[in-house]
Amino acid sequence: MIMAITNGTNSYQVFHDAIHGSMELPPLCVEIINTIQFQRLRNIKQLGLCYYVFPSASHNRFEHCLGTCYLAGKMIRHLNQQKAPPKVSERDILCVEIAGLCHDLGHAPFSHVSEGFINENRRTDNKWKHEDASCKMLDHLLKENPHVKEKLKPDEIAFIKDLIIGKSGKSAKPQFLYQIINNASYNIDVDKWDYLARDSHFLGIGKSFDHERMMKMSKVIDGEICYRDKCLDNFYDMFYARYRLHKTAYQHKTVLLFNKLLGEAFKSADKHLKIFEKVDDMKEFTYFTDCILEEILKNEDNESLKEAQNKLKDIIHRSYEYKGTCKVGKDQGKKEGMLFCEANLDYSAGKENPLKKILFYKKNEDKSFKYKPSELSNMLLLPSEFQMKIVYCFEKKKVA
């Protein structure tokens, strides 16, 4: 539900969201939302082919971006009320909100799943990243909608793109601003808070951490966002929730199988549909959404799409059966009719404990610190390892 509100000369809208309740978004963000380039996100599943295994995981990048925009606004306003950080202007706050809104503009069909095989099949050495594509799509959005572009200065547009990438470059803006949307320092940001809460809800898994508490316990010290020491357990719950979502849903064995089949379908269909060229042309990319599956399937008389159609039908008809796990590094893919899918699970920092990177502060102190691994081991019941790999084996069912 969307409700328009007028307050003086400013008109903003309240969006009712399943996760955050009533979200007030500023007028310029609403104008961006009401463009064709942003509306494409309604047709890109947040969890890709998880939807084919978990029927309620039907949410899209559209609502995730609205939620991230809302949390970004809450976070920056909370930090701006603190005594320590340099105060930021209302225009900078707006830029942070726009960055939260537009951070996923560049996602290709089925979100993260397609990023891997786009890079495998591109005819260039430059690695494709959805963050870079988000910046390109933002430029295209502004070009196609001059009524929006005229309300942003060139340096503000550059700032928004830096926030999306998560790098300040040569900017003189306060460093903590670049830790709100895409925090490369220690992987805690409003993007993660929204998708963990949203995905948990729609997968029916439940959420054990409280991002509202984390936000209220945050402040800026020496130019970086820090958190109260008593939030340590909450952060462990957050990283464990991420691991659990990967193990239960994102890298569920059947989801990984479907991802592999989708990649093979795309590679085959590329000969006819030029799929992988669409990611470099923002006009084409605007209409490059999950609907690509129907585009492949509907052309039943096109012989050049038969192989791709068969791969997609293997997903629909569930033509493979699970045969168990095998060792990582085994000579895979040699046996006819067999497929091997690898799950790579961690707590967001590879083999490392992500908690040791977080900046904390103690009550009534304005000095930040990091916990040592030995301290973390004494305070928490931690796993012996923070990364594991599993290889799932599948075999094509024999036709009776």
Instruction: Tell me which CATH architecture applies here.
Output: Orthogonal Bundle
- Main sheet attributes: strand count, strand direction, barrel closure: 4 strands, mixed
What is the helix content? 40-55%
Report the total helices.
Answer: 16
The low-confidence parts are 4-9
Distance between the termini: 50 Å
How large a portion of the residues is in β-strands, by DSSP E? 5-15%
CATH H-level homologous superfamily name: Hypothetical protein af1432
In sequence order, what are the helices and strands, one letter per element? EEEHHHHHHHHHHEEHHHHHEEEEHE
Radius of gyration: 22 Å
Average pLDDT over all residues: 93
Q: State the domain count.
A: 1
Overall geometric form: globular
What is the CATH topology? Hypothetical protein af1432
How many individual β-strands?
Answer: 10
GO molecular function: dGTPase activity
Domain HD: 61-196
Organism: Octopus sinensis
Protein name: Deoxynucleoside triphosphate triphosphohydrolase SAMHD1-like
Structural overview:
This protein is α+β, with helices and mostly antiparallel strands. The chain has one domain: Hypothetical protein af1432. The chain is built from 16 helices and 10 strands. The chain has helices at residues 27-33, 36-39, 61-80, 90-102, 112-121, 130-144, 146-149, 154-165, 190-203, 211-216, 232-250, 253-273, 282-285, 292-298, 306-316, 373-379, and strands at 2-7, 10-17, 21-25, 218-221, 224-228, 320-326, 338-346, 360-361, 368-369, 387-396. A 4-stranded mixed beta sheet has the order 4-5-8-9. The protein has a 3-stranded antiparallel beta sheet with strand order 1-2-3. A 3-stranded antiparallel beta sheet has the order 6-10-7, covered by helices on one side. Strand 1 and strand 2 (10-17) form a beta hairpin. Helix 3 runs antiparallel to helix 4 (90-102) and helix 6 runs antiparallel to helix 8 (154-165). It is globular.
